[in-house]
Amino acid sequence: MAHMDFHSLTSLDETLEKLAAYGSDATLVAGGTSARYLIMSGQVEAKAVLHIERLAEFAGITLNGGARLGALTNMRDIAEDTAIIARFASLATAAGKCGGWQTQSIATIGGNVCGASPSADLIAPLLVQDAEIELHSQARGSRTVALTDFLVAAYKTDRAADEMATAFHLPAQPGESADTYIKIQRRSAMERPIIGVALRLALDESGENIREVRIAVCGAGPMPFRASEAETLLAGQAPTDEAVRAASDAIIKRSTFRDDARASASYRAAVLPRAFAHALSLCRATIAGA
Ligand SMILES: Cc1cc2nc3c(=O)[nH]c(=O)nc-3n(C[C@H](O)[C@H](O)[C@H](O)COP(=O)(O)OP(=O)(O)OC[C@H]3O[C@@H](n4cnc5c(N)ncnc54)[C@H](O)[C@@H]3O)c2cc1C
């Protein structure tokens, strides 16, 4: 492996200065649970490693109408936060299923999203909250982008080489709504999902019809996606078997399945409708019990 400069950083200014100086020759390392492998295997070649794990100001959760999560907040802190469990259950669930507890104790939300893996667990739950990501650079200050626009392709984001992701903003969610995350994985595995489905459901006053549903899927294409066609089909409808089947078909149509070491394409296609139907019934039960 070629020589690399290593910088252990403790402030945003210092980090942005290094990012500005090295540009695309730098790689950021937060928890390092993905980055370390990418560097050691030669998939990432960088002149400088910028270690940002000690930027404590970007680790933590603040509640407003919604929530702000610092990019360096780790999975355990998200999974165990009572407010996140109450308001953004899908995110807490996904964080609590992201690898084993050792991985969760160091893996960050920023690393999960900026790695932009097709099967990153946190992306689908963030998509159903209409989350935004905040980025900082020395040259241009801060900007906030909708996560749907930030994710460009598999392993590719809209992050410029001189930017660091600093936070995620989750807006307040509609009343009478619930969200959940279903992760299909190999039994007892502490690894990425075969399929992941996040869903946020809001019912109308009657409690019978869907006011709004947001559906996001990972593991069913080159990048996690919002299943907007299925969302439109269900809006204003009663969730009858027929309506749920039509929505399922729309999700499948939008998906591209492939075989990999974890599962076959046909298994993924078979399990996705079941995961979706299960997510819908869990959200309905939560709203009914609220
Ligand atoms: C044993 C094991 C099990 C795993 N299981 C799962 C799983 O079940 N589900 C899952 O989704 N993932 C899993 N992963 C992958 C990984 O742990 C997660 O994606 C994790 O969230 C990455 O966070 P990190 O802080 O370690 O990121 P890092 O490895 O430090 O970085 C990942 C990428 O994001 C970039 N980056 C990090 N922080 C920032 C930032 N603030 N701004 C801009 N860019 C940034 C880095 O440059 C790098 O490209 C697993 C990994 C291991 C080793």
Give the structure's gist in a few sentences.
The chain is α+β, with helices and mostly antiparallel strands and 290 residues long.
Q: Please, could you describe this protein's structure?
A:
The chain has 290 residues and is α+β, with helices and mostly antiparallel strands. It folds into 3 domains: 5-51, Uridine Diphospho-n-acetylenolpyruvylglucosamine Reductase, domain 2 (2-Layer Sandwich); 59-170, Uridine Diphospho-n-acetylenolpyruvylglucosamine Reductase, domain 3, CATH 3.30.465.10; 177-289, CO dehydrogenase flavoprotein, C-terminal domain (Enolase-like, domain 1, 2-Layer Sandwich). The protein has 12 helices and 14 strands. It has a 5-stranded antiparallel beta sheet with strand order 4-5-10-6-7. A 4-stranded antiparallel beta sheet has the order 11-12-13-14. Strands 1-3-2 form a 3-stranded parallel beta sheet, with helices on one face. A hairpin with a 3-residue loop joins β4 (61-63) and β5. The longest helix has 25 residues, at 265-289. The termini are far apart. The model has no long low-confidence stretch (mean pLDDT 95). The structure holds flavin-adenine dinucleotide (FAD). The site of flavin-adenine dinucleotide (FAD) has 28 residues, from β2, α7 and β10.
